[in-house]
Fold this protein.
Amino acid sequence: MDAFFASVEQHDNPELKGKPVVVGAPPDQRGVVAAASYEARKYGIHSAMPSRTAAQKCPEAIFLRGNMARYKEVSKQIMRIFENYTPLVQPLSIDEAFLDVTGAQRLFGDGNTIAEKIRHDIREQTGLTASVGIAPNMFLAKLASDMNKPDGITLVPFNQDDIEKFLAPLPIGRMWGVGKVTQKKLLSLGLSTIGKLQQCDLQALEKTIGPHAATVFSRLAHGIDERDIVLETKDKSISNETTFKEDATDHEMIEATYKRLIDKVGGRVRKAGFFATTVHLKIRWSDFSTITRQTKLSIPCQDDMTLRETGMALLNEHLRHRPVRLIGFGVSGLTETDEPKTAQLDLFDAPDTTLHKKRNRLSRAADDIKQKFGDQSIRRGSTIKAKDPDK
């Protein structure tokens, strides 16, 4: 999709059309740009840019907090359009997806025809525009989808020699998977374009970026990508983080914010039907240095109490007397069952799951109350006196 969040805002509010719209944190607060309309991009504004910087580049920009529920609603509508043409759809994010249309050509025409039909349906049903890349594999389709934005189509050649010629003049930074660090290493070898990477000696490449990365990027430079569409992509992790308006030094305030993040993540895990096996802490200090720490759980869990105990233990271990800019909490290793991997445990070391299951029931009951009466309907007391802390 083209400038998805900003385009949805402009569609829903016609007064914003033709104006520089920025979705993200307000310019008077610390935070970043989530999306920028094409009118805003003319001023050099882009996603992940600090909002204050964006406001300096374009003082007349209109900043909006955004409406994720609305964006998800439109995204589902677009995904349904894709599924009208092929069941082989792999969402890449909320606003883009891979479609394998090989088997759909007999019904709908060649790749270019299907792309035009999809763009027409999106425009008619949502009022938004999309850009499409048509290619023999995922890497080339992804690269091509960014080449003629907005509202464009790019058709990549299907002949191997022509594919390599198509890729050769493109800057090395256009390669999917080449981040800033890898790009710097490739540039140090004089590999400023994909064409130069095509000609690079594999052994020299291995010494700079490692054997695995060298093999992958060398093959991609020649347009070789053998991955298939993945139909069922599950969340690998769930997390929430917050940036303080001012660098935080009050540990009680930091802990209170962190606990709210833990509870929010716990609710999301239960809603998604998962159990977590690993808990993560993220702290960014005032100088932008960042640490991430994690710990494994003996039993996959989704209850607030276990997540709080584990998360707070991590925080207490790693929080220092330094100003904190950002705090985050997350879980990973998500599974659909709370059964521990007993095959890896000694019989006498197998954990007791009684308390674990009781905590799960309690957390789900709390979710039901919050859903019925609101998030503020349950508050945690600061002091508890009981033999069983879960009663």
Observations:
- Residues 24 and 65 are 5 Å apart (CA to CA).
- Confidence is low (pLDDT under 50) at residues 342-352, 382-386.
